[in-house]
Amino acid sequence: MGSALLEGVIQAGLLKPEALFLLETDHSKREALRERLGINLCETIDELLRECRLIVFAVKPQVLPAVLREMKPLVKPDHLLISIAAGVSLAALEAMVPQGRFVRVMPNTPARIQRGVAAYALGKNIQPVEAERVAAIFGCVGRVISVPENLMDAVTALSGSGPAYVFYFIEALVEAGVLLGLGREQAGILAVETLSGAVEMLKRTGEHPAKLREEVTSPGGTTAAALFELEKAGFSGILMTALQAAARRSAELNQVK
After folding, report:
1. Which of 3, 40, 73, 214 measures 20 to 30 Å from 50, CA to CA?
2. 3-state secondary structure labels for all residues of 21-58
């Protein structure tokens, strides 16, 4: 996600490569990004905080506390700190670095192709111009919305984890096509293009998904037969239960120290 953001802001012209600084412990990754993007590299957290007023933490939630402990004595009031770590609340971030000014963001992996969606929540003492800056950065890799922080676990469950549900659904469609006699490549093309076209139709028409579903569902037809089986299996309920589980796990990650 960090590399997607770097590429996005450079490609969009929001920031020049020479204004960007990377701190990365993986030597091969950092060198590859420096060579590809022309950005600067930092050797230490101290150096990063001296060079940058806005910092994005693109690390796992289990790693973030250790990073913040090392950074705590160095953070100044003019630093803007952006965390994309799943499940770590603003209250937890501010408890770890009391003088820090934090924004919590949940992006998703289609940011890699500038088709992501991100939601952000503001911590204490964030100025409107800074909120606009955050929206502009993540807007380089997709759409951005603002939400109250108490909804961030729901965002994580729906859009943060959401691409995996879609890929899983496509896998199942492909396997079903193979079961019915299609070749795997044929089934893959049909599944992906069907899903892509349906989503684009939904976006262009602005219609409610239920209305578009009804347009495909003829009385007594094939679609009605398939939807009946999905209803019997509790398809909607399974999805809701799955997202509840993801939201609970997001909340549990906030307890990781």
Report:
1. 3
2. EECCCCHHHHHHHHHHHCCEECCCHHHHHHHCCEEEEC
Sheet containing strand 54-57, strands side by side: 54-57, 80-83, 101-106, 116-122, 142-146
Q: Estimate the share of the chain in helix, then strand, then coil, as percent rounded to the nearest 5.
A: 60, 10, 30
Q: Does the global pTM surpass 0.85?
A: yes
Residue for token digits 């502009």? 136
Report the distance separating Cα 48 and Cα 32, nearest Å.
Answer: 19
Q: Residues of 115-150 as b/e, b for ≥16 C-beta within 10 angstroms?
A: ebbbbbbbbeebeeebeebbbebbbbbbebeeeebe
Contacts of 199 (CB under 8 A, 6+ apart): none
8 Å CB contact between 95 and 65 = no
In angstroms and rounded to an integer, the radius of gyration of the C-alpha atoms of the chain is 22
Place of tokens 């204490």: 124
Q: Are 118 and 8 in contact (CB under 8 A)?
A: no
Residue 218, helix vs strand vs coil: coil
In the chain the domains, ranked by start, together with CATH numbers, are 2-148 (3.40.50.720), 162-253 (1.10.3730.10)
Q: What is the pLDDT of residues 64-99, one digit of tens each?
A: 999 999 999 999 999 999 999 988 999 999 999 999
- Residues linked to residue 143 through DSSP beta bridges, in sequence order: 117
